[in-house]
Every structure is written in C-alpha cells, then in structure tokens.
Amino acid sequence: MNGIDILNGLQETALGVIEAVLPLAIFFLIFQVLWLKLPRDYVTGILKGTFLAACGLLLFLQGVHISFLPFGRIIGEAFGNIGHKWLLGPFGFVLGFFTTWGEPAVRVLAEQVEEASTGSIRKTAVLVAICLGVGFIVGLGMFRIVYEIPLLYILIPAYALVIVIMWFSDEEFLSIAVDAGGVATGPMANTFLLALALGMASSMEGRDPIVHGLGMVALIAVAPVISVIALGLVFKTKMEGGANE
Predict the structure, then answer these.
(1) Contact criterion met (CB below 8 Å) for 92 and 194
(2) Which of 91, 15, 14 is nearest to 60 (CA)?
(3) Which of 44, 103, 110, 120 is the 20 to 30 Å CA partner of 203?
(4) Helix 40-63 and helix 10-31: axis angle, to 10°?
(5) Please, are residues 177 and 170 in contact by the beta-carbon 8 Å criterion?
C-alpha cells in the first residue's frame, strides 16, 4: 500500500485510549461493588458500551493521526502560497466552522444543553453559535499569521470582552459558554486546525511556526465563550421583548 500506513502510531494511540477509559471503568466497578449495587444485566450493558466507545475512540484518534494531521498541514502550506492573502480570512472561517460542526464533544454539549433545559435552548442554536465563534477566530488567526500580529493583541482584548459581557449574561448561558470553550478545542481542532496553522506558517517566508503557527488553539478556546454569551444576550433580549408586549 503506497502513501499512508494505517497502522502507523497505532500502539501509542491504543495506550492513550486505555489510559483514558480504563480508570473510569475501574471507578465505576468500585462504586458498583461498594454503593450502587446495580443489576448484573445493567452493569454488563454499561461495560459493553464502554468497550464499544473505547474501540470507536481508538479508530477515530488513529484516523485523525494518519489523516487530519498531514491533511491539515498540506492545506496550510497551500494557503501560505496563495497570492491573494485576503482570501485566507474567508477560507479560515469556512474551515473553522465546519471543523467545529463535526467536533464530537461540541455536539455532545449541545445535546446536553437541550436536555438539561428541557428543550428551551435548542441544540442547533448552541451548535451554530459555537461554530460561528470558532470560524470567525480561525479566520482572524489566519490574518495573524499573514500580518505577523502578536498573539496577545488578540487574546487580551478577547478576554477583556469576555469579562465585560459576562456581567450582562444569565448564569445559565455563562455556564454553557465556559464549557463551550473547552469542548471546541477537541481532537478535530487540535489536529486539523492546529496543523493548518503550522503548515501555513512554515510555508511563508519570515514566519516562525513556533511563534506564528502555535496559538490557534488558545484563540479557539476563547471564541465560543464570546459567541455563546452573545447567544444568551439575544435570548434575554427576546424574552424581555416578549414580556413587554
């Protein structure tokens, strides 16, 4: 088979999955023996589901390792050689949006929000808000590489904005926003988008991949916080407008 070796790094990936899943399974079994006392069939179903989840996680992470990392870097190198640099902003927005759209942890959060709010906060609204925030910040991150903008020039105003608007946000959306910042920096962002930025920085003359390529994940972490809080302000305004009518 030419090109990609699908078994490359499989052992390291498998060990990482075991280290992540096995402690959780052990904790569950300890609680089952000491306190939970759940029926045997129920415990068997949970353990089977845990095994299937571990297998799926292994396949997913291995696929990310052999495909998204090199794919993102190649795309980034191609972007770095584009003549019209202003196109990198829109390209970055599109890639950031759809990469986050496929992020498993983001979808889990959106579904949990809808379930916890008994449907008053739709999962689609949360999902779109997070994707828009990440898309915007990835486009801005592309411009940061092109124009050599210091990372702090973006991060400090972004976190200052978070501190300001959080005082106007409802507690429910503030909690969602903080979690959104964590789930957005999942395996898709940490592989494809980070590799994209590194590939782009390495292909542009005068750019240091360490200085200009890294930092994208930090930007992605703050963007959903702002966009979800903004979503909460929209909900709050609509509710106040409906109450006044």
Answers:
(1) no
(2) 14
(3) 103
(4) 160
(5) no
pTM of the complete model? 0.85
Residue 92, H or E segment = helix 88-101
Residues in Cβ contact with 108 at an 8 Å cutoff, skipping those fewer than 6 apart = 183
Q: Could you give the CA distance from residue 28 to residue 31 in angstroms, rounded to a whole number?
A: 5
pLDDT tens digits, one per residue of 196-241: 999 999 999 888 999 999 999 999 999 999 999 999 999 888 887 7
Q: Are 178 and 242 in contact (CB under 8 A)?
A: no
Yes or no: say if 177 and 159 are a contact pair by the CB < 8 Å rule. Answer: no
Neighbours of 170 (CB within 10 A): 14
125, with CB counted inside 10 A (0-12, 13-18, 19+), is middle
Distance CA 123, CA 15 (A): 33
Contacts for 194 with CB less than 8 Å, ≥ 6 apart: 72, 213, 214, 216, 217
Distance CA 106, CA 181 (A): 9
Cβ(176)–Cβ(126) under 8 Å?
Answer: yes
Handedness of CA 207, 208, 211, 216 (dihedral sign): positive
Q: C-alpha 175: how far from its chain's center?
A: 16
Residue 234: other Cβ atoms inside 10 A: 13
Cβ–Cβ < 8 Å for 238, 170? no
Ordered by start, the domain boundaries in the chain are 8-70, 81-244
Question: What is the structure's pLDDT at 4?
Answer: 63
Nearest-angstrom CA–CA distance, 187 and 58: 12
